[in-house]
């Protein structure tokens, strides 16, 4: 069965399952925002050593082969369902992904990870499709952050502030965002806070449970300046 479990929390839809099997069951979405595995075997940078603290679970290997066979295929499929997206692919294997329409950057001046050419203080953001604010406003393609990621049980979460910026940059209020590599749910927490409907897919049960808890907490602490999200309707399939 493609879908092992599904939860609807706030305006968010969280699915436990294999994204390559789940996505064909879903309809069109407005945008894709995801932070897929980097294919570095848990290393913090291109010459970082793997450690238990940075390795993903045993649900999937963080290897270049997995990235090519699964991550790139999933991102390509997701983009075919939306035509618009923002992907944070990491540095080492960013060019394995489809050619973007534009590129941005996340600058972390306090970062300490190492690459083959020195300290790595930035990560690329791949933009696909048309800027949703073309003709309305001009916004920057970069974000500078010194805020740390929340320690939530996932080895490599993006800072919530960064994902809020990316979600806001890639979408408009009330649009539907899909994250095929949900992890600890940071993208969906950002969606909940910003008034977007999110669809997150995760293969690891422990990470899925963390995501459900975090989205539930975000739902209980709404942003007073964001209009409440309309509850999504059941579509595509019925788990019965």
Question: How would you summarize the topology of this molecule?
Answer:
Blueprint: E1 3-9, E2 12-17, H1 19-22, E3 31-34, H2 64-80, E4 85-87, E5 102-107, E6 114-115, E7 118-119, E8 122-128, E9 142-144, H3 160-170, E10 176-179, H4 186-194, E11 197-202, H5 205-220
Parallel strand pairs: 2-11, 3-4, 3-10, 5-9, 10-11
Antiparallel strand pairs: 1-2, 4-8, 5-8, 6-7
Helix pairs in contact: 3-4, 4-5
Name some characteristics of this structure.
240 residues; nine-stranded mixed beta sheet; two-stranded antiparallel sheet; 5 helices; globular; disordered C terminus
Describe the structure.
The strands form two sheets. This protein has a nine-stranded mixed sheet, with helices on both faces. The chain has a two-stranded antiparallel ribbon with strand order 6-7. It has one domain: Vaccinia Virus protein VP39 (Rossmann fold, 3-Layer(aba) Sandwich), CATH 3.40.50. The C terminus is likely disordered. By secondary structure, it is an alpha/beta fold. Helices cover 24% and strands 21% of the residues. The protein contains five helices and eleven strands.
């Amino acid at each position: 069965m493609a879908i092992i479990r599904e939860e609807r929390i706030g305006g968010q839809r969280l699915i436990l399952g294999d994204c390559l099997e789940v996505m064909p069951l879903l309809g069109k979405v407005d945008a894709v925002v995801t932070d897929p595995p980097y294919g570095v075997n848990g290393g913090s940078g291109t010459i970082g050593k793997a450690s238990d603290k940075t390795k993903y679970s045993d649900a999937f290997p963080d290897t270049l082969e997995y990235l090519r066979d699964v991550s790139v295929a999933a991102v390509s499929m997701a983009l075919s369902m939306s035509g618009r997206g923002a992907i944070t692919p990491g540095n080492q294997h960013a060019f394995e992904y489809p050619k973007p329409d534009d590129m941005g950057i996340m600058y972390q001046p306090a970062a300490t990870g190492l690459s083959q050419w020195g300290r790595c203080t930035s990560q690329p953001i791949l933009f696909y499709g048309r800027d949703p604010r073309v003709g309305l406003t001009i916004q920057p393609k970069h974000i500078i952050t010194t805020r740390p990621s929340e320690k939530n049980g996932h080895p490599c979460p993006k800072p919530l502030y960064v994902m809020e910026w990316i979600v806001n940059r890639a979408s408009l209020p009330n649009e539907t965002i899909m994250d095929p590599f949900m992890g600890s749910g940071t993208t969906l927490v950002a969606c909940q806070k910003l008034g977007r409907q999110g669809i997150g897919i995760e293969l690891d049960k422990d990470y899925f449970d963390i995501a459900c808890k975090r989205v539930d907490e975000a739902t209980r602490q709404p942003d007073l300046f964001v209009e409440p999200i309309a509850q999504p309707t059941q579509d595509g399939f019925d788990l019965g």
